[in-house]
Amino acid sequence: MDRGGIYRYCIGGQCVHIVVDAACCDLPAVLPSLAPFASDDTVVAPMFVMTITTCEPPACDWREIGDFDTGNGHTRVEKDDTTGDYRFLMRNIAEQPVAWMWTRQGFTHCYCKLLAITTVDATFALNTALMMAYAFEGAHHDTLLIHASCATIGDWAYAFIARSGTGKSTHVANWLKHVPDATLLNDDNPVVRVIDGEVFVYGSPWSGKTPCYLNERKRLGAITRIERAPSNRIVREPVAAAFASLLPSCSTMKWDKAIYDDLIKTITNVVASTGIYTMYCLPDREAAEICSTTIAQCK
What is the distance between the alpha carbons of residues 82 and 28, in angstroms, rounded to a whole number? Predict the structure, then answer.
């Protein structure tokens, strides 16, 4: 399929459909990271449908919620208080508008109109739109999209969270170099799900600057927050501190009560059944070895 039609994907075990109006874009070329998640399942209902269209957003009484830095651009968020629908204007790093996205019935039906004329901008816009739709609708399905780097050993995965620039990817890179059998699952936005009381982590099409797009599922062994320090030590966080560590790493909209309440429930369930640690560390081999030896005990 070159242009137009329905593309089906399974991301984090959740079905997602993307409907492309004819001549809007060549989706496989714009988002090749989706290829490992392609699905031929025509039976399971999708968590949400994203339609890429040439239509304009509806004329509503949009109220601005805020304008947010996405790291590689900015997104303005607006809401129609009558219907509860949202509208998003995405801009690139040069502050040029690259796409509109708007919603109906929560985030189960989303629409995206590309304004970009370059493939780079189209890729940025569609990635941003899909990540927002997945994170916000996923909140209602015991699903989190977290900002983390994730390593695996066998059937278990270990997620690392931190403030931007603190060194989580560096720490995971030391795992890959120095911890036997360690591999990378995702380097930026893995999916965490609670299923029948158990917590799993999945690879996703969103892996930051590292092209690691694995359609795999592992048991979540632990989540570790990385903090730079002059020496290496690791502590397991009590429940309240664990919750406070994890919350900022989860994509959400705090102003939307339904989404935020469901996200809080899922985080609570993750914290209740998963070890949450803080690793105070140097960016060295010893830190990886101390961390891996400690958190592997929580399985």
Answer: 36
Residue 199 to residue 192: CA distance in whole angstroms: 7
Give the integer Cα–Cα distance in Å for 277 and 9: 33
**Long-range contacts formed by 160-164: CB under 8 A, 24+ apart:** 160/223, 160/224, 160/225, 160/226, 160/279, 161/223, 161/224, 161/225, 161/226, 161/245, 161/246, 161/249, 162/225, 162/226, 162/227, 164/71
Average pLDDT over residues 44-69: 93
Q: What are the residue ranges of helices labelled H in the chain?
A: 27-30, 119-138, 168-178, 239-246, 257-273, 285-295
Say what the pTM is. Answer: 0.94
How confident is the model over 185-213, as pLDDT tens digits?
999 999 999 999 999 999 999 999 999 99
In eight-state DSSP terms, residue 222 is E
Task: Find how far residue 50's CA is from the centre of its chain.
Answer: 16
Backbone angles phi, psi at 34, to 5 degrees: -80, -20
pLDDT tens track for 96-119:
999 999 998 789 999 999 997 789
Placement of tokens 């720490």 in the chain: 171
Q: 3-state DSSP call for residue 249?
A: helix
Contacts of 240 (CB under 8 A, 6+ apart): none
d(CA 100, CA 112): 6
SS3 111: strand
CA distance readout (Å), 267 to 139, 235, 270: 10, 20, 5
